[in-house]
Every structure is written in C-alpha cells, then in structure tokens.
Design brief:
Blueprint (H helix, E strand, L loop, with lengths): L3 H17 L2 H6 L13 E4 L10 E5 L4 H10 L4 E4 L4 H5 L6 H9 L4 H19 L6 H9 L3 E3 L2 H18 L4 H9 L2 H8 L5 E4 L8 E6 L10 H7 L2 E6 L4 H9 L3 E4 L2 H17 L4 E5 L6
Parallel strand pairs: 2-3, 2-9, 3-4, 6-7, 7-8
Antiparallel strand pairs: 1-4, 5-8
Helix pairs in contact: 3-7, 5-6, 8-13, 10-13
The structure holds fe (ii) ion (FE2).
Length: 295
C-alpha cells in the first residue's frame, strides 16, 4: 500500500531509534522490528524439526486451540498459519495502525490530521488488547509441537491492493456498480451463499460513488470515528471496508460517506489466498479451515 521505499524508510527509522536507546532499554527492544515492518506478523512457534520440508499446511482466518487439535487429528500437518494475530503479534497489533495514516494521506487527508486523530485511537487499541490471553494458542502449539505462524497486515495489504486495482480498472459510477463488481469475486460469491456477502452499511445503491477509498481493509483494526468528516473534506465519497462498528457507521453517514462492507472472513480470505497461492505453486498442500474460503 505504501510502496517499497516507504517501508525501507520505516525500517531505517526503527534502526536509528534502536541505536539511540540506552543499554537497559535495548534489552527490551524487540529485535524483529529491525527486519520486519509488520508487528502483527510472526513466527510464533518453530516446528519440532525446523529442517523438515513443509508439504502440508493447515491455514485459517482464526486459529484456536480447537484447530490445533484438528491438525493433530488430520495428521501430517507441517505448519499452521493463522491470519489473525496471536502472542506477541497480537500484543503489538496497534503498531501496524500507523499505516492507516499513510494510506489516508494518499487519498488527500493531510498527514497531520490523520496522525493526530489516529494517535489516541492507537493508544486506546493498545490498552484494549492488553488484558487478552495473548499466548494461549501459542502455548498449545508449543505443547503439540506444531510450527505456528500468523500473517495479518501483509495479507490485508494484498486484498487492499487487489480491490484497489479492480476498482480503478472498472471505474464504477454508482454504488450498485461497486456492489455488482464485488459480487463477481469468487470469495464474495461463496460468502453470499452463507448470507454474508458484500452489503451497503451507509448510503444508497442509487448514490454516485465519488472517489472510492480502500482505507478500511488494512492497518490492524478500526481507526478513529472522527476521521470521516476529514475524509469527506478530502474528497472521498465511498469507503470499502471489511467490517464497521455502529459508531463508525453513524459518523460516516453524518459525513455523507457511502459505506460498503465487503465482508470480514471473505475479504481476509482474498488476502490469504493471494499469499497461499504462492505456496501452492511450490507443491505445498493447503488445507483451509476456520473461516478461510479457499479458491
Ligand atoms: Fe480480519
């Protein structure tokens, strides 16, 4: 979403910050941050035998202890991939939210406004996730000896990019055109079958889209509810998101922004499929579970 150059710059900045730290603080610093720009994406547990080639992967949107036991039952699973983060990746989910400010800036929201509104929300999210039982599933993976990784923001970036390109190519004029376009995508087609297809949360199918923004697909979790007024001022007419809370929906509506909620598991599946397809090309068998619509 930001491009390679910005990611490189971000990593260089982390390194600079690390080097300036006092020895005591350096000990606490998460070294992974120097090479991995996505705090919510990690190797959570090494497999029993890290040298063993990966032939079969169990992949899901939400991996719980249940799915780990399922993997044991299925047998011969070499690696388990969760989309939503666990362990340390969940504890630092708030870190990736910085990306939202950069994406908003690409759509014309001044970076100072985007950052100013996001900052208190990021610290709120960090407090909200603090009481979670972060390592519960990681602990189970350790006991069972499963290799366990989670891939969150990179997969969400893939789906955001995928939707962005589709929208730019089709240039839809009305909200109904956007919905039609989304409903042609296979993951959303499958979602429609179980009653969770793309739907309009705010606005009207007869409304014109104006500028369409893919601002609520990636960047950890929901941003600030105060952003919608600023988005409208920046010229955004329609948002495509994965999910949206009532509070955010009301604020978007008040700012006359149309909101299309494409669907949560289905949108996450698009991103994960784009990634997993690359693994499948290397003759790795992917077994989908826990909400992953595989195509
Ligand atoms: Fe998600």
């Amino acid at each position: 979403m930001r491009g390679k150059a910005k990611v490189k710059k971000y990593l260089a900045r982390q390194k600079e910050k690390y080097q300036k730290l006092e020895a005591e603080k350096k000990k606490e610093f998460d070294q992974e941050r120097l090479i991995n720009p996505y705090s919510d994406t990690r190797i959570l547990n090494q497999p029993k035998n890290p040298q063993k080639p990966i032939k079969k992967i169990l992949a899901g949107i939400d991996i719980g202890v249940g799915e780990l036991l399922l993997a044991k039952e299925l047998g011969n699973i070499d690696l388990i991939i969760s989309h939503h983060p666990h362990g340390q990746a969940l504890a630092s989910l708030d870190d990736v939210m910085q990306l939202q400010a950069e994406v908003l800036a690409q759509y014309g929201v001044p970076i100072n406004v985007a950052e100013g509104l996001l900052k208190p929300r990021i610290s709120e999210v960090s407090r909200l996730i603090s009481p979670a039982n972060h390592n519960r599933v990681v602990d189970a993976a350790k006991l069972l000896g499963f290799g366990f990784v989670c891939i969150h923001t990179p997969a969400d970036n893939l789906v955001a990019d995928f939707l962005d390109k589709k929208i730019k190519k089709a240039q839809p004029e009305y909200i109904s055109d956007v919905l039609k376009l989304l409903k042609e995508i296979s993951e959303y087609k499958e979602a429609i079958k179980i009653g969770v297809g793309p739907r309009l949360f705010a606005g009207d199918e007869e409304n014109r889209c104006g500028q369409i923004a893919i601002t609520e697909i990636t960047g950890g979790t929901e941003g600030s509810p105060k952003i919608y007024k600023k988005m409208a001022q920046a010229g955004i007419g329609t948002i495509i998101g994965m999910h949206m809370s009532e509070e955010h929906k009301k604020e978007a509506e008040a700012a006359h922004i149309n909101v299309i909620v494409a669907g949560h598991m289905s949108s996450d599946s698009i991103g994960m499929n784009l990634f997993l397809n690359q693994l499948a090309k290397q003759s790795i068998k992917i077994i989908p579970c826990a909400g992953l619509i595989r195509r």
